Amino acid sequence: MADLPPPVQGPTAKEKKYDRQLRLWGATGQMALEDSHMLLINSGPGVVGIETLKNLVLPGMGNFTIQDSAIVSEADLGVNFFLEEEYIGGFRAEHTCNLLKELNPDVQGNFITEPIDSWLTQPDSLKPFTLILAIAPIRPELLARLSAHANATLIPLFYVHCVGFYSHFSVHLPSAYPIVDTHPDSETTADIRMLKPWPELLQFAKEKTSNMDTMEADDHGHIPYIAILLHHLEEWKKGHDGKVPQTYQEKTEFKTTISKAARTNNPEGGEENYDEAVAAALKSLKEPEPSSSVKEIFKVPECVLVNKESPSFWVIAHAIGLFYTKYGVLPVPGAVPDMKARSADYIQLQNVYKSKARKDVMEVLESVRFLERTTGRETVIEEKDVEQFCKNAAHIKLVRGRPFHVVQAGETIKWGERAKSIAQNLTFPDTLIPLYIAFLAFDEFVATHDKDRLSGAPKMPGETRQETDTEKVTGIAFKITDDLIKEAGTFIEEPDYTAVKERIGEFVQELVRAGGAELHNIASLTGGIVSQEIIKAITEQYIPVDNTCLFDGVKSKTEVIRI
Amino acid sequence: MGRDKSARQSLGSLHMRIKQARRAPIHEARVLMVGAGGIGCELLKNLVLTGFGEIHIVDLDTIDLSNLNRQFLFRNEHIKKSKALVAKESAGKFNPNVKIEAYHDNIKDPQFNVAWFATFGIVFNALDNLDARRHVNKMCLAANVPLVESGTTGFNGQVQVIRKTQGKTECYDCVTKDPPKSFPVCTIRSTPSQPIHCIVWGKSYLFAEIFGTSEDDAPELNHNEDSENAQEIEKLHQESQALKRIRDSMGSKDFPRLVFNKVFKEDIERLRSMEDMWKTRRPPQALDFEQLSKEALGVADTIAQKDQNVWTAAENFAVFVDSLRRLSNRMEETRANVDTGNAPAILTFDKDDADTLDFVAASANLRSHIFGIETRSKFDIKQMAGNIIPAIATTNAMTASLCVLQAFKVMREEFDKAKMVFLTRSTERVISSEPLRVPNPTCPVCSVTQSTLLVDTSRATLKDLVDDLLRLQLGYGDEFSINSETGILFDPEEDQNLDKTFNELGLKADSFITIIDDADEDTKVNVVFSIAEKTLDKDTRPIHLPGKLKIGTKPKASAPEVNGNGNEHNHPVTNGVTNGKRKRGAEDNLEDDLVKKRGKVAAAPAVADDIILVDDATDGAIVIDDD
Ligand SMILES: [Zn+2]
């Protein structure tokens, strides 16, 4: 054995460093993160943007660029962890960039100190970026430009407010944003197909339950519950014209039958495998029907009309749609839940499910290959992607990304199809929609107020005059509210209407009182939430917030709304 | 415009309180932070930038490479240094006005006694293990200091305010935490059916027998359970003995072959010969050393690096032989260094120690081959053997910020508004919360009455305590017992200690004694006394109770609990340790869940940063904030 070459000791230092996160989003997620280049357009006190970046630099985002023309002031030091006294008078973009880079040598950081107005008008200035994070305040025409860019290039755009105890973010995702790896709650992933068994599974059940009445106690107590369920289902069908239990009453009866079949003449007074069968009985009588949102995906135009340019998601989805049309079920995912069983039986059962899953994958793969040929697709979809898709088929998700509101001075905000539902929810006592309206009013104030003519930096309410600004912003917020109610074609009765306005007034007052200032702790929390959503958008894993999230730091409360 | 502009504007009067508190003698804003890891780094930054004036940090841990993806106060050059000290240095640079004290110590050290805890206005637990959490919980209750407890697992996080008086809340121990999981010895040694069984075998049996302390001394294996067959247990014992003898030939060229043939051939053949066992199971198939050696000649030398791949039998063989050699060499070196004295040279399994992990991964997979069990990648085995909890920057950032927001409520004494806050993966509601619960009336920690006893320990005897203080002053009857941290000191049958002094009984300053009343009627709740040493005037009693003590009575025994452990609260987040329900992983980690059915090999004791494996815990839907 001395001549056996010594294996090099792995994993690499990089894998070790990222070990704890690789266990969440895996190597593919990590690769996506390392290939990304985020632009942060920083503004205001600029803390939330930097805190967000911190949480992305640490896990190894490939590249970031900070655009910020602000100069470091003393006030920055009290809230921004990534600035030090010696940098006062220097460019904030430069110093925050350098200190962030120190966190992770694997990450490339860049900064731009040119004012946003002129920088953004240069052609191709946004070209290098795979994701943009814009921090309020920002002039509406610039935000509109970013939004148009996101629309055209399908890159995600995030927009964040963080003022005093409150924050908000909205995300503009591509209009078709499908996710295969949604990381479903593990309790929902078991799919044992009791109502659609295949021959090998039936055979397994038959083998394990033959002469069950004369079995030794220990053997009887180790029949896998899946075999018990199938056995009793077959028995039931014999007495019911070949039908499985239909009504609730029948189902309950079925469950009782199983529980009565358990042996109780043992020291434990029952059998664990039978307990498992009883517990799974009702659930297993539900047709293995895909959720409506999954079925919906098979019907959307992107899925129905696959062409040579279609992203691979749609090609595979189309193929699985065909499978579903043919069999009325999705491919078998192949997992077997843990259960009381003999080791060998359990392994055999795993193989029964695995072979079936494999067979289904091969059938889907065949359709995929057919589609590739017929559409003249140039790149070949990898088999492992098809396999992964089949495994997750019941949990795929399609998010329809959409632009968020860009408040233009003097223009009425359009709520479109969302008007009705948002106007309705506005009266709920705990909703944070009034906070969203307060932030919209905040933006309209920004749109019409400059700090000084020269640099054109926007001014935030409350920076100098509390009372008059509160009055102004409240007035704007009330108008936005009335316009919303009008667009929804509805009417809010008293005293609800007054209550809504009071809540909006309170939020406005709090925002103006902060004078555009950030609290570090709120910025840090918001940065945590936003960076998490950015990681989802980059890795295309997990289900993202769609599309707006509000945070009230007084009550430690969030609300997600679709606008 | 100074540094404080933002905080002043938004925090208002609270900001002034935090600031003024810096000048008060024992001020409410003196903060203790236990743990300087993932949550700790974020928490320290937030506390510094919120204006807290004095922060004490205690952490025994040192910095590891795998911390750097989230613990942003640490860099490569800090690896192996003290977390507490580096955190102090890194955070202090950013705000010279804040006073930070760092202790590279165990929070359970006697220097951190109740009196010391009582000097803080608020305590933050940013810990990663059950034991330390429970300790701090107990100390905070004894010192009557509010505690903000927190924990994370992957995307999930949890923050809980614990306060003994004023809005009395549930404490950390009010909800029973799951004990570590374990497997019966027969499953591990004779009838494995899942990858985890083979991994536990590789780690707790094979590795321990060859390089560590013997299985007989390992706390994880329970020999008493599930002994289907006493003869088999005896056989297994003989196998262990035989393996120990092979251990003596470590260092010889033949060593890998000897070990291999013993555990992957002879033991398997013996098992297989017991035909009764394999009537209903697939019999195991022994492996052949010579054949695998030949196949392994083609294996690339980088194989151990490919930790995401599932290795073939030959690849596992190559890694097994090589890692065994690496470990043997290390063992030899250790032996050479431990030349004198009786300390035996041993190696311990550490998931971050590539040699030990390679060995366990390869051994586990070879065993899986034998039993027809699915094999696993080294990456997966590391998680299962090392009890790794996923951890990321984003969750820590959110959780630490939520801790500070809850601390604001504590400092404003708005306990009615303080919440139990959860981070979930739900996209409906990123953060959820529920009102703090009332204490569990039978909680072994907080349902007790706590007090301090002033004791002249050289003079006071147990008799003074029993007759004078407990019976005469506090009205105890005949049926009660006195327990120290090491055991029973007194009960109606155990009275030989009565004439011993506190000193003789080892009851020194800062030790605890618990009085358990066994009266049938109006049974008193347990009383925990922490002992304060004091020389008392010779003419006075040698034990003195400072202030009045009111002892409540125990609630009448209630109806039997449905699920045995009386845990009706199902906390959705594991707090970094198992707590409440555990959910099954997706297909790939079927056995990550270890076994709920029959098992008894405990998971390894909690080590810093990596506790008990929970896959992506849950999305638990929780009561919506109705504040
Ligand atoms: Zn308690």
Task: Kindly summarize this structure in a few lines.
The complex is a heterodimer of chains A (563) and B (627). Chain A has 563 residues and is an alpha/beta fold. In chain A, 50% of the residues lie in helices and 9% in strands.
Overview of this protein structure:
Chain A has 563 residues and is α/β, with parallel strands linked by helices. Chain A folds into four domains: 13-181 and 521-561, Rossmann fold (3-Layer(aba) Sandwich); 192-287, no CATH class; 289-399, no CATH class; 416-515, no CATH class. In chain A, 50% of the residues lie in helices and 9% in strands. Chain A contains 22 helices and ten strands. Chain A has helices at 13-17, 19-34, 47-57, 74-79, 92-103, 116-121, 140-153, 199-209, 217-220, 225-239, 248-261, 272-284, 292-299, 301-304, 312-327, 343-375, 383-392, 419-425, 433-447, 466-488, 496-514, 520-539; strands at 37-41, 63-67, 108-112, 131-135, 157-163, 166-172, 177-179, 397-399, 548-552, 557-561. In chain A, the strands form two sheets. An eight-stranded mixed beta sheet of chain A has the order 3-2-1-4-5-6-9-10, sandwiched between helices. In chain A, strands 7-8 form a two-stranded antiparallel ribbon. Chain B folds into three domains: 18-174 and 390-440 and 566-624, Rossmann fold, CATH 3.40.50.720; 183-385, Arc Repressor Mutant, subunit A, CATH 1.10.10.520; 449-544, Ubiquitin-like 2 activating enzyme e1b. Chain:  B, domain 3 (Structural Genomics Hypothetical 15.5 Kd Protein In mrcA-pckA Intergenic Region, Chain A, Roll). Chain B is globular. In chain B, 50% of the residues are buried. Chain B is α/β, with parallel strands linked by helices. Chain B has helices spanning 5-11, 13-21, 38-50, 83-94, 114-117, 130-143, 185-189, 195-211, 230-247, 255-273, 289-296, 313-337, 354-371, 378-386, 393-411, 462-473, and strands at residues 30-34, 54-58, 99-103, 122-125, 147-153, 156-162, 419-423, 431-435, 449-455, 480-484, 488-490, 512-517, 527-533, 543-544. The two termini of chain B are 35 Å apart. Chain B has 16 helices and 14 strands. The interface between A and B is large, with 103 and 115 residues. The complex binds zinc ion. The site of zinc ion has 8 residues of chain B, from loops. Zinc ion (ZN) binds next to loops of chain B. Chain A: Residues 18-557 form the THIF-type NAD/FAD binding fold domain. Chain A: This is NEDD8-activating enzyme E1 regulatory subunit. Chain A: Pathway: Protein modification; protein neddylation. Chain A: It comes from Pleomassaria siparia CBS 279.74. Chain A: Regulatory subunit of the dimeric UBA3-ULA1 E1 enzyme.
